[in-house]
């Protein structure tokens, strides 16, 4: 019995939607939870009509939105700094992200959703910097819907392209997702370095 035969009953069950919402919520606090693989698998099965692709996207987006606010609230509480400061790398990354929130919070929240580990870091930065919910929540909603549609859509396309081998479609979807996230991370890193370079002004001409 292969893997897809084992997960088939779950993917055709009405309990799939609350399961996706729960996994996507917990993933905002515990990054080790494989919510992306679950959403991709649901997208692969959705090409047959069951489960519903639109419901997969809606349940996932709702879960991501809730998870974002859980991480935001936790990092804003008294426990946030204690958890963040346990790792020097995490604390430095959160501090660096927090410095850019005043000028482009919405853009950073949306783009970080597609970066490996970017969701947790940005949510922690927003909570630590006490970014107002009036700015955080709308950006989180857009990011959640965009990521849910993108991830489920990748699985759906993989399921259509590899009808006879859904597992291969899932693997291709994961590969494309990782490649896209790596491309965004590389672009952001180059942009940050370019902006950080000091601009040398020419000296005034001395007569």
UniProtKB/TrEMBL annotation:
Coiled coil: none annotated. Belongs to the DedA family. It comes from Micromonospora luteifusca. This is Membrane protein DedA with SNARE-associated domain. The chain crosses the membrane at residues 51-72, 139-161, 167-187. Pfam families: VTT_dom. InterPro entries: DedA_domain (IPR051311), VTT_dom (IPR032816). The keyword Transmembrane applies. Residues 33-155 form the VTT domain. Keywords: Membrane, Transmembrane, Transmembrane helix.
């Amino acid at each position: 019995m292969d893997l897809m035969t084992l997960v088939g009953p779950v993917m055709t069950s009405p309990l799939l939607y609350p399961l996706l919402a729960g996994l996507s919520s917990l993933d905002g606090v515990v990054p080790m939870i494989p919510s992306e693989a679950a959403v991709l698998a649901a997208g692969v099965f959705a090409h047959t009509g069951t489960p519903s692709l639109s419901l997969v996207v809606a349940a996932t987006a709702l879960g991501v939105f809730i998870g974002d606010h859980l991480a935001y609230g936790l990092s804003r509480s008294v426990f946030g700094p204690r958890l963040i400061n346990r790792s020097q790398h995490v604390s430095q990354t959160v501090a660096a992200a927090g410095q850019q929130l005043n000028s482009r919070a919405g853009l950073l929240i949306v783009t970080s959703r597609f970066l490996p580990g970017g969701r947790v870091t940005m949510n922690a930065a927003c909570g630590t910097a006490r970014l107002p919910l009036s700015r955080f929540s709308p950006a989180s909603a857009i990011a959640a819907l965009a990521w849910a549609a993108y991830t489920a859509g990748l699985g759906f396309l993989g399921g259509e392209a590899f009808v006879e081998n859904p597992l291969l479609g899932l693997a291709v979807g994961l590969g494309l997702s990782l490649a896209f996230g790596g491309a965004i991370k590389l672009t952001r890193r180059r942009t940050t370095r370019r902006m950080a370079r000091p601009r040398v002004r020419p000296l005034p001409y001395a007569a």
